[in-house]
Amino acid sequence: MKILITGATGKVGSRLAKRLAQRGNQVRALVRERGRATDLKGIELIEGDLQNAESLEAAVRDVEVVIHCAAFFRGATDEQAHAVNDLGTQRLANAARGASVRRFIFTSTGLVYGSTGGKLVNEDNPCSPTAAYPVSKLAAERFLLGIEGLDVRVLRLPFVYGDGDPHIKDVVPMMRGFPPTHRMSLGHHVDVAQAVTLLLDAPSPAHRIYNVVDDEAPDLATLFASVGEPPPNGSDAERARAFDALLDGRRIREDLGFSPRFPRLADALAAGA
Asked: Which domain holds residue 16?
């Protein structure tokens, strides 16, 4: 099938685009600058921007599936997050519907649930995020799920790691003040790709929203140790509350047969992955 992927120069999108191409799909990547996509070999590049509706119409032409990974996360103001993650998604979805795209897969975030006190949350739990990024992603979800004439499926991702991604190391400064016992839902890049391909291949998935998560949520002391860092010091426990939801991943396992290749962080470390 012919697939358009956005965010193909980002952490998730770049790895996903390559795996889809290796799988034999025709992959087109929406990029703002071709110079940032030199490692996307064998992938069609088309320049465009979520802020430019005309460029999106060209991007979705003759495409069967859109996989929307592009987002503005760290450093975004409320206004920037809204403009890119919400309004940009609306433009892309409208263009996809106009081009009769068969399915629209949106990579959202488990942060949309907001603080749950470290309790497991499933797809039917209420969402009450407070930070700009998940607020904008939840707004985009709600728009997508309300649009008519487009088969939308939402994947709520956990903290994604592995596959040469420095993501764990990158968040150490931000989470230095979190409690060392704070637990995080994780998902390996390989398993995010597995979830996407399961949605690509399923003729009619039973649900529209799926949490994607590995089997184990390690504490931050363990996560930090995996990149050679001392545990966080717990000086900013209040800030950590926005990240304390743990994802329940049973739905995608039961509906689509998802089974993580790396169920635990320890498995990925042992495999050098």
From this structure: 2-115+122-163+186-216+248-262
Task: Return the structure tokens found at 61.
Answer: 């032409």
When pLDDT is cut at 50, 70 and 90, the band that residue 8 belongs to is very high
Rounded distance, CA 101 to CA 64, Å? 5
Q: Which of 103, 258, 137, 255 is nearest to 192 (CA)?
A: 258
Instruction: Let me know if 161 is a catalytic residue.
Output: no
The amino acid present at 67, given as its one-letter code, is I
Q: Note whether residue 157 is domain-resident.
A: yes
Q: Nearest Cα to 246, choosing from 70, 122, 72?
A: 122
The number of beta carbons lying within 10 Å of the beta carbon of residue 85 is 27
Residue in the structure block whose two tokens are 């000086």:
235
State the pLDDT at residue 74.
Answer: 79
Cα separation, 263 vs 202, whole angstroms: 23
- Does 267 fall in a domain? no
Residue 87 lies in a domain: yes
Collapsing DSSP to helix, strand or coil, 242 comes out as: helix
Residue 268 has pLDDT above 90, yes or no: yes
Among residues 113, 133, 161, 210, which one is catalytic?
133
Residue 38 pLDDT grade (very low, low, confident, very high; cuts 50, 70, 90) = confident
Question: What is the rounded CA–CA span in Å between residue 28 and residue 37?
Answer: 12
The Cβ of residue 21 has, within 10 Å, a number of other Cβ atoms equal to 19
